[in-house]
Amino acid sequence: MKPSEELERFLNFLRTAESLLTQAESGQQEAEAETQDILHALELESHTYHEMAALSRKLAQVRQDRRRDKDTVAQLTPVVEWAHANEGTVRSLQRLLGELRKTEKSIQNRVYTPKTDVLKEEQS
């Protein structure tokens, strides 16, 4: 993999981390609200055995979803905080990415133009 591709992957990760964090925080809040809805339904309403079992399964699923989102929040919060605290560094890395791409392109399209006629003399 080219150096520019590696750097681009890192910068893409930094860019998407904030939106992923926002989504995970929203998902966590939604799961907490759903948990409260289920708990209040169990507390305040009458249910058959099968309805109770279904609510129990639903509660377990909601709690697993909440845990997944909470873990994502815990992992991405420091990344997003670092990116905000180091905006200058991130911009510098973006400029570096542009320079790397330019260098890789010039290497890829490299053509040598002879400066003398020495090669023509050898071919004769």
How would you classify the helix and strand content by structural class?
mainly alpha
Enumerate the spans where pLDDT stays under 50 for 5 or more consecutive residues. none
Helix content: over 70%
Largest sheet: none
The number of helices is 4
CA gyration radius, whole angstroms: 28 Å
Instruction: List SSEs in N-to-C order.
Output: HHHH
Give a count of the beta strands, DSSP E runs of length 2 or more: 0
Overall morphology: elongated
**How confident overall, as mean pLDDT?**
94
**Distance N to C terminus:** 43 Å
What does this structure look like?
With 124 residues, the chain is mainly α. Helix content is 86%, strand content 0%. It is built from four helices and no strands. Helix 1 runs antiparallel to helix 2 (49-85) and helix 2 (49-85) crosses helix 3. The model has no long low-confidence stretch (mean pLDDT 94).
